[in-house]
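Supplementary notes (optional reading)

For those who missed the lab, this is the record we used. Protein: Competence protein ComFC. Length: 223 residues.
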Amino acid sequence: MGKGIFEKIVFLLNCLLEVIFQQPYFCIICGRELAYEEVYICDGCQDSFERVTDIVKIDGQDDIFLDECIALYEFKGNVRDIVHDLKYRGKKDLSNVIAYLINKNINLDADLITWVPQSKRTYRNRGYNQSEEIAKYLSYYTNIKCEELLIRVKETQSQVLLNGIDRWYNVWDAFSAERNLKGLKVLIVDDVVTTGATLNYCAKALKQKGAYVVNAICFAKSC
């Protein structure tokens, strides 16, 4: 028997054994073994997540270009920990978990999915854009095409330590869209929304290229 055929047989047998004797999966938060229908997070931990019940209100210092913004959870407790682990502790795989939860709970409708671009400094320090990672997984789950549509045309400060008004001035016209989007419905993905300033100016750039509707989806809403 040739070596190649033998290796294929071994591979198929291993796959069969994995199906028959499945390894247990554990909750990424509490470590409890997951029940058959649970994915990534056990029901007990998910019950601690506080759902956002209303559309996120964007009330800013300029015209509003974003048509609608939806956030899944309040930015507190385990939800905050998941975001911090993704952004600051290098746990990039959590972007898949976030995308799975968004897709499970919210019916998304768009022609294209895109994401909020980072500053060059942030990308260089982190090594990835968490919003881009979430967007690409959402594209996988929804079969909606995902494209890099936005670029950051000026470097900005981190929004984290800025107050509401300063957040708006900080990202004012900081983004540009790269191609013609005439008549398209675009969905912007971000991890957390606070004032909505960043998302609003991303929406402005997309509409300047002809986007008909621009909505946003975020994992969490920070007060």
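If you only remember one thing from this example: The chain is about 40% helix and 15% strand.
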